[in-house]
Write a structure and sequence with these properties.
11 strands; 10 helices; 362 residues; single chain; two-stranded antiparallel ribbon; alpha+beta
Length: 362
């Protein structure tokens, strides 16, 4: 029984050696470090206070008074000596995809409450460690009861520029905007949703206000249409042209004194490319859509030029850009095109994932 409870190797004195004082001290140091809590560079739980003395329950009744808050460390607003890496200006630092419900102006309709994603950033001087990012979010709650438009965004931008003592700043608010659309022949109605972003950029005293809209349409390939007709006419062979869901991202600069409703921008796109995807469809609508596509075949080059013509002819915009992506049913790749007017959207390089983002999610 003793042999079972006490194996031979445990009785072998040659295999057992007492730990040295240094070994014990090192082990205790590891345990202390594991239990220590670092605050502002001080270690509590070592020789200043035993880790066992900490309160392990949440202090629901604790009140942080002014004195306590003044004692709390604030590394983001610390001295420049805390900066890691190059001590250089940062063009943009802030938050992305902060979500909240906002009330949006909607032309002749009552304001709409829409879930909105906020991206906000400011420039940071080379001598500053960082910014208090929660101030960007808190700025929005000051305007919780306001109906939003580009002017409201500009006011919020000024608010957090002052709070963060910055010079340049940017705000982009993105949401899905519903519009009731009628079917082509059955007169049914359904809601079409448009991906929209309002953007305000302030560089020094210069302010740029931009509306971005994704317009989703069907594109029938003119070449494929002609080849299908050729097969029918010369050989009596049934053939169908390829068409595909396509997206045009339209970005327009709105001058300070002008107002543009989303409905107006959608109408401009619809006049340029009438083959917008449909919401409610019965058989007569499907046939009408096939006829509409057959009457308006377009290459991706045609798409950007048609929308450019509509925007330019409206005579009420500053600079603008049209990006189109035809997500081909013939090819394993997409056909894409970009057309710009003015210097605002001129770029040498583009985000590698820009075209990948032109995918309409239902």
């Amino acid at each position: 029984m003793n042999e079972i409870l006490q194996p031979k190797h445990l009785n072998d004195a040659e295999n057992l050696s007492a730990p040295s004082f240094a070994d014990v001290q090192n082990a205790l140091d590891i345990i202390r470090r594991h239990k220590a809590v670092r605050v502002g560079g001080n270690i509590y739980g070592t020789n200043q206070q035993s880790a066992a003395d900490f309160n392990r329950s949440y202090a629901a009744d604790f009140v942080a008074d002014a004195t306590y808050k003044a004692s709390m460390p604030d590394l983001q607003n610390g001295p420049s000596s805390l900066i890691k890496g190059a001590k250089t200006e940062i063009q943009h630092v802030g938050i992305s995809n902060f979500r909240l419900p906002l009330k949006w102006r909607a032309g002749a309709r009552n304001p709409l409450v829409l879930e909105t994603s906020v991206t906000g950033s400011v420039s940071l001087e080379a001598s500053k460690k960082g910014i208090n990012m929660s101030r960007i979010m808190r700025s929005f709650y000051k305007y919780a009861d306001e109906a939003f438009d580009l002017d409201t965004i500009d006011q919020i931008l000024n608010s957090y520029i002052n709070d963060l003592e910055s010079f340049d700043a940017r705000l982009q608010l993105s949401f899905r905007y519903p519009m009731l659309k009628r079917s082509l022949r059955s007169n049914l109605e359904g809601f079409q949703y448009y991906d929209v972003s309002y953007e305000v950029i302030r560089i020094g005293v210069e302010v740029t206000r931009i509306i971005h809209l994704d317009y989703v349409y069907s594109s029938t390939c003119p070449c494929s249409l002609e080849l299908s007709e050729h097969a029918r006419n010369t050989r009596g062979q049934n053939a169908t042209p390829h068409s595909q869901r396509s997206v045009a991202r339209v970005s327009v600069v709105i001058e300070n004194e002008q107002t543009l409703w989303i409905e107006e921008l959608v109408d401009l796109c619809l006049k340029a490319i009438p083959t917008e995807t449909q919401v409610m469809v019965k058989r007569e609508d499907e046939q009408a859509f096939a006829e509409l596509n057959g009457s308006n075949p377009i290459f991706v080059e045609d798409a950007v030029r048609l929308i450019f013509e509509g925007l330019d002819g409206a005579g009420r915009f500053g600079d603008f850009r049209v990006i189109a992506s035809h997500q081909e049913s013939l090819h394993s790749h997409d056909a894409v095109s970009i057309l710009t007017k003015g210097p605002t959207f001129n770029q040498v390089s583009y985000d590698p994932r820009m075209f990948a983002s032109l995918i309409h999610a239902g």
